[in-house]
Design goal:
Blueprint (H helix, E strand, L loop, with lengths): L11 H10 L6 E6 L5 E6 L2 E6 L2 E5 L12 H8 L2 E6 L5 H6 L10 H5 L3 E2 L8 E2 L4 E12 L8 E12 L12 H4 L2 E3 L5 E3 L24 H4 L6 H7 L8 H12 L10 H13 L3 H9 L3
Antiparallel strand pairs: 1-2, 1-5, 3-4, 4-9, 5-8, 6-7, 8-9, 10-11
Helix pairs in contact: 9-10
Length: 292
């Protein structure tokens, strides 16, 4: 068990650490208009999708830490309850950052950041042409937590139309995460980039009713060569492989290798850990259960 140190809310350390803890966070690049049609564009990293039917996004323009005043995005939404959420990828991350400058009301951040506004179809605010995904939204509700500096104003926005750059769509109208080059916000001035080397898959446990780690054999559960991630993979199977399958695997192995060198259980557990790292759960189970 690792030792911890505790922090109370409303302290500098707590506020800073929280942004590192809840990260990476996708960026809501929100375009809005006021009642006179003046356009505003601003990024928010307190943002995520919260529902599918209807599709709901939530983001929070905090009150300014300096004096507790509200941001132009929120004021616009109060006047015109619509927005476009434009997803940020690496190609526009610096322009996104520039648009966060506190320009005076009425200044168009599209112009300041050098981004291209294009008309929306169902809402008044324009979309960002450079964004890979553009989500037209009707604002259902704004939940204001308090009038204190840093307080949340939770914007509940229903997506009424989505636009996707065609370059990212395949023939099935799907996208690959390897192509999008998305970015996300972390603590302080740090961001992260979703490069191919950072992407991996975890099989959804909803496809099976897994045994659970508690049902694993003790020699597996307490192996010094298997991590918690390994045990999670092993516990996601519905049943252990049959003895017949294990024996077949052993016979095939013996036809190719001198299996006596794998007699120590520690060696077999090391082999299993490498197979689990490669995602081959079934073979890992054969090695863990095989008796030599």
């Amino acid at each position: 068990m690792q030792e911890t140190k505790s922090f109370e809310p409303n302290t500098k350390s707590f506020d800073n650490l929280l942004k590192h803890a809840i990260s990476p966070r996708p960026i809501c690049f929100a375009s809005t208009v006021d009642k006179e049609g003046n356009v505003n564009l601003s990024p928010f990293s307190f943002f995520n999708i919260m529902g599918q039917n209807p599709p709901i996004c939530v983001f929070s323009p905090l009150r300014k830490m300096r004096d507790g005043s509200t941001k132009h995005t929120l004021e616009n939404i109060w006047e015109q309850p619509e927005c476009v959420i434009n997803i940020v990828n690496y190609n526009i991350v610096q322009q996104q950052s520039l648009s966060s400058v506190e320009y005076p009301k009425g200044v168009n951040e599209f112009v300041k950041a050098g981004l291209t506004p294009i008309p929306s179809e169902m809402v008044q605010p324009p979309r960002v042409a450079e964004s890979p995904f553009q989500l037209e939204c009707k604002v259902r509700e704004v939940i204001s937590i308090s009038d204190q500096p840093g307080a949340a104003n939770i914007v509940v926005a229903e997506i009424v139309k989505m636009h996707v750059q065609k370059q990212f769509l395949n023939d099935d109208d799907n996208v690959s995460p390897y192509d999008l080059d998305l970015v996300a916000r972390m603590g302080e001035d740090f961001y992260c980039r979703v490069i191919p080397e950072a992407i991996f898959e975890v099989e959804k446990p909803t496809r099976t009713i897994g045994l659970g780690i508690d049902s694993l054999p003790d020699e597996v559960k307490f192996s010094k060569f298997l991590t918690g991630n390994h045990l999670g993979q092993l516990g996601n199977v519905e049943a252990l492989p049959s003895q017949e399958l294990i024996d077949n695997f052993k016979n095939q192995l013996a036809s190719r290798l001198d299996i006596n060198k794998f007699k120590p259980i520690e060696v077999r557990h090391q082999v299993a850990s490498k197979l689990l790292d490669q995602g081959d759960v079934q073979s890992a189970w054969f090695w863990l259960l095989m008796d030599i």
